[in-house]
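Annex B. Sample input.
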Amino acid sequence: MSVEVNNESGVEIDEGGVVSLAGYVLERMGINPLAELSILVVDEEAMSVLHEQWMGEPGPTDVLAFPMDELRPGPGAGARQEGDAPTDPALLGDVVLCPQVAAKQAAEAGHGTEAELELLCTHGILHLLGYDHAEPEEHKEMFSLQGELLESWREVRTQR
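Annex B, continued. Sample output.
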């Protein structure tokens, strides 16, 4: 996987950890190893502009996803089944994160900013892969998968 992080936020983040997590999520989702993903980390002002321009909503948000291709998950709601071929290589798109908003949400949730950024990165990647949470069934599926991916990522990471 090719994962590029561009941090324009002025906030130091664990870029290596974000790249590793993104690669893990894409691999677990059965995405072709030649796929490319861009992660942009911006400040609240830049995120506000993007949020208003693309979503029509005022103020900054935590994460935005901008898919490049019409890539959709494969069998089993995105999880590659034994024997399935990976999806074709593609430029997946951009995930945009705002660490300042993530820090506020992390404090409210009672965990660290890094954990919140991991959650948001995973969430954004799932959006790029066609997942949504507008309807109750979609919400349940996406957030369940997000939780499973994060839990397994954290287990793998602590074993290193």
